[in-house]
Amino acid sequence: MLKRIFFIILSILIIFPCMSISAYEVTGFEITAKSGMLVSLDTGEALFSKNENKKVYPAAITNIMTALVVLESDKYSPDSKITMTKKARNDILGTGVTDSHTKVGEEFTHTDLLHMIIMCSFGDASCLAADYFYGSHEAFVKKMNETAKKLGMNDTNFTNPMGIHDSKHYTTVADIYKMTEYALKNKTFKEICAKPRYTLPATNMQDKRILSTTNFLLVGSNSGYEYSYASGVKTGYTDEAGRCIVSTASYNGYNYLCILMNSPNNPSKRQELVECANLFRWAFNNFEFKEIANSTEPVCEIPLELSMETDFVPLYFDKPFISVLPKDADESTIVINTKLYSESVKAPVKKGAVLGEAEVVFAEKVIGKVNLVVGENVKANAVLKTADVIKSIFTSKAMIVVYVILGLAVVGFAVWCVIMNYTKIKKRKVRYIPYNGKERENKHNR
Predict the structure, then answer these.
(1) What is the spatial distance between Cα 93 and Cα 100, in angstroms, rounded to a whole number?
(2) pLDDT at 2 (0 to 100)
(3) Is 135 left (phi over 0), alpha (psi -120 to 50) or beta?
(4) β-strand 254-263 against 35-40: which pairing, if any?
(5) What is the pLDDT at residue 413?
(6) What pTM does this model have?
(7) Quick one: how many helices (H) and strands (E) in the chain?
């Protein structure tokens, strides 16, 4: 069945080479989200994609960046206390964002604050973070956008730390992937976003409370949408953004990230949660790691100069290339296209030197790029090396300039000689003519 699907996909690629389609076609269920991706966190490959570069509104997915900016602030200290302010409470009035119901003057730790932001998308917690860690919303948002640029999120712009709808507050699925992948490298962020519940300790103004995640895929959320292998990350919703989810799942050594944006708001069924779980099942059931090439067998070779040992140097992948491919994929259809940085190389060459790159292509789609490196040291022949040095000296740019100067000097000298000879000849003619005239005059007077 899968082979038939692959042949259909390949036919579409051949007939419509300019058409934008998903990496692989999902089967057995529908994806109603207007934009989305399913990416292997192990290899970075997209198994599914839909309008990944189209502008979307992030809603509370924004809080991934909000949490990142907090975590990377010099003021962040897990056990330090922060106090809810009247300004932060007033900032969310009339916005419709989720309210933490903390009181003005209430104290809690920076860690507690992050749980409020990541797990629950509390708007007043995000406002408080902006003012406390960077002095103002404007400075905090500036830092958000600077971080986005640093991560290569070139189609993203933030205008607030909460995810309130604004036509100038936007991103793309591809950028959300970059942001989330980076955030998951932070241990604190990764641990918080995987929690279905968190006990907020008693404060100076309230007893302890239980915070519950908005990500109903997590086991323990008691939502009816739980997926056994889900482990994070964030949800969001506004009328303009639709239902949004960013989630991870891990099983049997495989790790995936799913992003679904602008899913329909169906009161009777959380479509984005169902489809996210379906995509995870599809990936776990139908794909597996395949080693395309190892780093011990040569891929190609490059001509070698100045060596008596060999005329060619074999090149290898700098590391084994492993891809997540369909279990029934025909590995014989995988093509490796090599690109050398030069037509030849001169000895000596060192093991590990990068002399080119290779593209790995499956079903006419580039699934990865790998450096091509020298596998072993090769020495230069002393005689050939000396001759090459002498040749390089006489063919260098400096020598060419010398040659030009000498050539111009020779030409100039030749021109000078011609001019001087011409002048001498001319002077002789001038002296001879008056002499003959005088002689003829004397003859006439006689």
Answers:
(1) 12
(2) 38
(3) left
(4) antiparallel
(5) 84
(6) 0.77
(7) 11, 17
What is the C-alpha separation between 161 and 18, in angstroms, rounded?
A: 38
Which residue matches tokens 């070779």? Answer: 301
Terminal alpha carbon distance of the chain: 132
- Find the angle CA(412)-CA(413)-CA(417) to the nearest 5 degrees: 120
Would you state the pLDDT for residue 90?
96
Cα separation values, 346 from 145, 353, 355, Å: 46, 12, 11
> CA distances (Å), 48 to each of 255, 280, 325, 385, in order?
14, 11, 12, 53
pLDDT of residue 441: 52
Q: Are 103 and 128 in contact (CB under 8 A)?
A: no
The angle subtended at Cα 33 by Cα 35 and Cα 118, nearest 5°, is: 80
* Cα–Cα distances in angstroms (integers) from residue 373 to residues 268, 308, 368, in the given order: 56, 21, 16
What's the pLDDT at 292? 85
Do residues 242 and 263 touch, judged by C-beta distance below 8 A?
yes
Rounded CA separation 125/116 (Å): 6
> Given this model, what pLDDT does residue 309 score?
85
Q: What is the pLDDT of residue 429?
A: 56
- List the one residue out of 229, 274, 277, 200 whose CA is nearest residue 38: 277
Give me the average pLDDT of each 10-residue run along the chain (446 residues): 36 31 74 97 94 97 98 97 97 94 97 98 98 97 98 98 97 98 97 97 97 96 94 96 98 97 93 97 95 88 90 92 89 89 93 94 85 91 71 72 80 83 66 50 52
Report long-range pairs for 99-104 (Cβ below 8 Å, ≥24 apart).
99/123, 99/124, 100/124, 100/125, 102/203, 102/205, 102/206, 103/205, 103/206
Residue 184, amino acid: L
Radius of gyration of the chain (CA): 37
Between CA 4 and CA 288 the distance in angstroms is 18
CA distance 133 to 105: 17
The C-alpha atoms of residue 33 and residue 259 are separated, in whole angstroms, by: 9
Whole-number pLDDT of residue 387: 67
